[in-house]
Structures are given as structure tokens and as C-alpha cells.
Design a protein that fits this description.
single chain; about 220 residues; mainly alpha; globular; disordered N terminus
Length: about 220
């Protein structure tokens, strides 16, 4: 059995490696867009997550309304990049807070993790498709339906309950932690990876540098 202390040491080593890789890549156009998108502003955790949800909806609509395959691919990569990071950050930051602060929080978090697993599996399929594939749009619409169900539940039930149970300062601290976490975790879907700390932390730190290296060769929406 792996000892938690061993996981902690491993995570620290991998984290240092990840930081070195990210610092080396900061001069690229992609990394500039990436780090500005990960900017942390002062807000509650609910506001931060709902902001992400709106961006994800926007990316999906941009794919569906795109007039050419190149534009579809760019927004496909943007959607994958954001949804993968958003899901893992929730699992590492938000769901543990629910388990800690809410009566029945563990069952709520477990339900959210189950929904995330479905999203990860559909996203994994979608991220490997080309716009010319017959499954491209149907898979995107399946992803959209699952995401819509999940985000509505979070915004209507989970987040208001969490906000009522914690101080605003703690909510703002969670929001900052959520934003920081998104800077160091995978940017592609990996459905077979663990979905809770500390194992997800270690797996994410191992996978993230490879994902980010691949991102440097992928097309993304052009900066305005």
C-alpha cells in the first residue's frame, strides 16, 4: 500500500518539474493566453465556477456555429482545455470542501464525481474526433446535454448550500485555490485517472506536463 507521506514527497518532486516546464514555456503565444485565462480574481467560489460554466457554454456554441473545420478544431481544443481543468479542480478543491463542511456532503460529492466520470468519458471521445467524423457533432451534443445537467445541479443545489455553510472569506479562499489548481493540472481528459486526492493530485502532476507540451502544437482560437 502506498503511504500518504510517499505520495506527498512524489507530488512535491513532480510539482517542481511541472513548474520548470511551465516557466520555460511562458514565452509562447499559447502560454500567454493560458496564463491570462488562469488569472485569479477576488470572488466567491460559486462566482468562479459559474463563470467557468458560462465560458464552457460559449465554447460549445462557437463549435456548433463555426463555418469551417479549422474554427471548429480551435474551439474544440479550447473546450477540452477548459473542461478538463475545470473538472479536476472541482474534484481537488470544491468537493473536499463539501465533504468537510456539509451534512451529507460526501454523498453530494460522490454524485458529482459520478457525473464528472461520464463527462470525462464523453470528452475523451470528443477530443480525439475530427470535424469530418460523423460522430463529431452528435458526441458534442451528448457532452453538452451531460454538462448542462451537471452545471444546473451545481448552481441550483450544491453551490448555494456550500456558500451558506462557510464564511465569505473561506469561499474567496476556495476560489483562489481553484484558480491556482487549474494552472497545474491536465488539460486533456483522462477518464481512467483517480478522481479524488491525494491520488488524483499525483496523477495530475504527472500527466499535466505532457498535456501542456501537446497543447503547444494544437490550434486554439486566435487572440482578439
Amino acid at each position: 500500500m502506498i503511504k500518504p507521506s510517499s505520495l506527498t514527497r512524489t507530488a512535491k518532486i513532480i510539482s517542481q518539474t511541472s513548474l520548470t516546464s511551465i516557466n520555460r514555456a511562458q514565452s509562447s503565444p499559447f502560454s500567454k493566453r493560458q496564463f491570462s485565462a488562469a488569472a485569479i480574481r477576488k470572488s466567491t467560489v460559486s462566482e468562479t465556477i459559474i463563470h467557468d460554466h458560462k465560458e464552457l457554454d460559449e465554447y460549445i456554441n462557437n463549435i456548433l456555429s463555426a463555418k469551417d473545420d479549422d474554427t471548429k478544431v480551435r474551439w474544440q481544443n479550447q473546450l477540452t482545455w477548459e473542461l478538463a481543468r475545470h473538472s479536476i479542480a472541482e474534484e481537488l478543491v470544491v468537493y473536499p470542501a463539501m465533504e468537510k463542511n456539509l451534512p451529507g456532503g460526501k454523498s453530494m460529492a460522490d454524485k458529482d464525481r459520478e457525473q464528472h466520470q461520464t463527462l470525462k468519458e464523453v470528452l475523451y471521445k470528443f477530443q480525439g474526433l475530427k470535424p469530418s467524423d460523423t460522430d463529431f457533432e452528435p458526441t458534442l451534443k451528448e457532452l453538452m446535454a451531460n454538462l448542462d445537467e451537471h452545471t444546473k445541479q451545481e448552481e441550483k443545489d450544491d453551490l448555494p448550500i456550500l456558500e451558506n455553510a462557510i464564511e465569505k472569506s473561506e469561499s474567496e479562499s476556495l476560489a483562489k485555490s481553484f484558480g491556482r489548481t487549474k494552472m497545474f493540472i491536465p488539460t486533456r481528459s483522462h477518464p481512467s485517472a483517480p478522481d479524488r486526492p491525494p491520488f488524483e493530485t499525483v496523477a495530475g502532476l504527472m500527466t499535466a506536463p505532457l498535456d501542456r507540451l501537446g497543447d503547444m502544437f494544437r490550434k486554439f482560437p486566435k487572440d482578439n
